[in-house]
Automatic annotation (TrEMBL):
Domain Calcineurin-like phosphoesterase: 11-94
Pfam family, one: Metallophos_2
Signal peptide start and end residues: none
Protein's recorded name: Phosphodiesterase yfcE
Length: 95
């Protein structure tokens, strides 16, 4: 199979490495050890948590956890995922 025009993962990794100190990443369903070898920050965690004052953001790709398979969340927690590649913002109960 031919690669799409402009497909340049090494260049993407180079640009991401420039801002590595600002990146919080989670492993996606197509990320591999080879991808990790190019990057200067970890991408192998299935999920991450970010605390903003008293609110927790649960970050995940979406193939393991998502709206139909929720992780353990508390009231006012925010689930952030992107597996579907479609923008959605919704509230379900207190989450």
């Amino acid at each position: 199979n031919a690669l799409p025009e402009g497909y340049a993962p090494a260049k993407v990794a180079e640009r991401l490495n420039e801002v590595a100190h600002k990146v919080i990443a989670v492993r996606g369903n197509c990320d591999s050890e080879v991808d990790q070898m190019l990057l200067h920050f970890p991408i192998t965690a299935p999920w991450q948590q970010v605390l903003l004052e008293k609110q927790r953001l649960f970050l995940t790709h979406g193939h393991l956890f998502g709206p139909e398979n929720l992780p353990a969340l508390n009231q006012n927690d925010v689930l952030v995922y992107g597996h579907t590649h479609l923008p959605v913002a919704e509230q379900r109960g207190e989450i």
